[in-house]
């Protein structure tokens, strides 16, 4: 559900990222306090209208939201057990409105615009030592690397399965090693691309190297 | 010109490069050698990603030890694994990223990005998430992102190892067409055949230096004997 920008020229796309994010936060808060099913149902309808306005194809909207559904089912099922049907329906609707709206923001806003909005919002905090560009970079890189780390996790799992290990808590160790290695390479790449101070601490590289040589997966 | 004088490098108490004196003036320089012979360490010295334990590396007269930032602006670096090099979520954003950090005026960034997208056949992937590109496309993007900042030199550390034959050919063609001076570390002897010069490393030392044919012969002799 990350970084699947869907390009089009619509009023929803044209709305500044900062405005969209503020609306998302406001609606998120409001939905939390909304206690009636008709209000929540109407909100869901409104979000659906916004999807139409943004000309997001149903196929794209579905692809974006599908990964969340199992969690939604789980949440609703838990609520049914502990609080009954009515509360469960309300909670389900709340989550649905929120996820749908958040996805709409993702689909209609470029990451660079989100990053710029975050940077702008943090600028007043500069005197307190906050570095907005750095926070913006972290936001962008998080979006970029979540799928990469997921890929690494799949690889580690596949490698273990290939060796006949079906379920293993040792799964985390090779994944951690790979992630550290990724982080190491990434730090270097950022240097090479002109970010950061350059002189990287030799100690940090050496420690990663130490982990590296004990990588149980080896290089595949 | 990139110039190394009396360069040695040590990790902990192990010397991985010793006594390297080279002046790289040719437009296409290849670096070959066995695993662990010090090629990547050498490559990283060229743009100041690491500074030598002893001796000096200079790029256009700038010492990498003192002028690292400026050196890295002149010397672009393409890593073996494009996944570490691509730091932004989408193709166009990643191209813009390097430009922003090279102090290119904001107004000229979109134009440069568009041109790079067109040059590398990535135009239709403009807003595509980087992680959904194929390995070859990722490597092309990584190279494009370096080229777009217009460095005078480009160092490649095994740019084709992770690629299939077709993508490898594309990358080879791109490298062959570059106007910049390039230094390419590679195990792929075909890639280097028409280079101007090839340097062979063995256990941290330069053991051969000449035309690719001479260097490959020396490398093969090393392996067999
Ligand atoms: N950051 C590091 N810390 C400690 N040792 C290192 C580090 N980087 C490389 N080495 C060691 O230095 C030696 C040379 O490594 P280098 O990566 O330069 O070799 P290479 O010729 O590029 O090998 P390959 O063909 O496998 O890429 C190796 O023995 C390696 O283990
Ligand atoms: Mg190497």
Explain what you see.
Chain A contains 10 helices and no strands. Chain A has 220 residues and is an all-alpha fold. Chain A has 2 domains: 11-109, no CATH class; 126-213, no CATH class. In chain A, helix 3 (37-53) packs parallel to helix 6. Chain B has a single domain (2-224), classed as P-loop containing nucleotide triphosphate hydrolases (Rossmann fold, 3-Layer(aba) Sandwich), CATH 3.40.50. Helix content of chain B is 37%, strand content 27%. Chain B has a 6-stranded mixed sheet with strand order 6-7-8-3-9-10, with helices on both faces. Chain B starts with a strand and ends with a helix. The model of chain B has no long low-confidence stretch (mean pLDDT 90). At the A-B interface, helix 8 and helix 9 of A face helix 2, helix 3 and helix 4 of B. Bound molecules: adenosine-5'-triphosphate and magnesium ion (MG). Adenosine-5'-triphosphate sits between chains B (11, 16, 33, 35-41) and A (205-206, 209). Chain B: This is Biotin transport system ATP-binding protein. Chain B: InterPro entries: AAA+_ATPase (IPR003593), ABC_transporter-like_ATP-bd (IPR003439), ABC_transporter-like_CS (IPR017871), ABC_transpr_CbiO/EcfA_su (IPR015856), ECF_ABC_transporter_ATP-bd (IPR050095), P-loop_NTPase (IPR027417). Chain B: Residues 2-225 form the ABC transporter domain. Chain B: Keywords: ATP-binding, Nucleotide-binding, Transport.
């Amino acid at each position: 559900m990350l970084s699947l920008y869907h390009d089009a020229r619509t009023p929803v796309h044209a709305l500044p990222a900062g405005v969209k994010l503020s609306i998302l936060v406001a609606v998120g808060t409001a939905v939390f306090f909304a206690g009636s099913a008709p209000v929540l149902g109407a909100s869901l309808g409104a979000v659906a209208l916004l999807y139409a306005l943004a000309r997001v194809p149903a196929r794209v909207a579905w692809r974006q939201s599908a990964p969340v559904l199992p969690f939604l089912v789980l949440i609703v099922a838990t609520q049914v057990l502990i609080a009954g049907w009515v509360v469960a329906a309300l909670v389900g609707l709340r989550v649905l409105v929120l996820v749908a709206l958040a996805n709409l923001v993702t689909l209609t806003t470029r990451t660079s615009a989100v990053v710029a909005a975050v940077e702008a919002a943090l600028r007043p905090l500069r005197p307190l030592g906050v570095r907005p560009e750095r926070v913006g970079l972290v936001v962008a890189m998080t979006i970029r690397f979540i799928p990469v780390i997921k890929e690494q996790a799949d690889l580690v799992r596949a490698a273990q399965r290939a060796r006949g290990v079906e379920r293993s808590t040792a799964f985390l160790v090779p994944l951690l090693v790979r992630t550290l290695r990724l982080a190491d390479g990434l730090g270097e790449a950022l240097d090479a691309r002109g970010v950061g101070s350059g002189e990287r601490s030799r100690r940090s590289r050496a420690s990663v190297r130490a982990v590296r040589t004990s990588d149980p997966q080896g290089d595949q | 010109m990139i110039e190394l004088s009396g360069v040695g490098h040590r990790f902990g108490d192990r010397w991985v490069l010793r006594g390297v004196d080279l002046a790289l003036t040719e437009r296409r320089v290849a670096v070959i050698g066995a695993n662990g012979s010090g090629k990547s360490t050498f490559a990283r010295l060229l743009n100041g990603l690491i500074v030598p334990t002893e001796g000096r590396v200079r790029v256009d007269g700038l010492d990498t030890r003192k002028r690292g930032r400026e050196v890295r602006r002149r010397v672009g670096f393409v890593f073996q694994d494009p996944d570490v090099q691509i730091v932004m979520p989408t193709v166009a954003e990643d191209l813009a990223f390097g430009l922003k950090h090279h102090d290119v005026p904001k107004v000229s960034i979109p134009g440069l990005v568009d041109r790079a997208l067109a040059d590398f056949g990535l135009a239709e992937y403009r807003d595509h998430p980087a992680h959904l590109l194929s390995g070859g496309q990722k490597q092309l993007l990584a190279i494009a992102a370096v080229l777009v900042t217009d460095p005078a030199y480009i160092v490649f550390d095994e740019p084709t190892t992770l690629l299939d034959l077709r993508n490898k050919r594309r990358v080879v063609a791109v490298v062959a067409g570059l106007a910049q001076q390039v230094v390419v570390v590679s195990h792929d002897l075909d890639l280097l055949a028409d280079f101007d010069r090839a340097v062979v490393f063995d256990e941290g030392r330069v053991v051969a230096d000449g035309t690719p044919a001479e260097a490959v012969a020396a490398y093969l002799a090393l392996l067999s004997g």
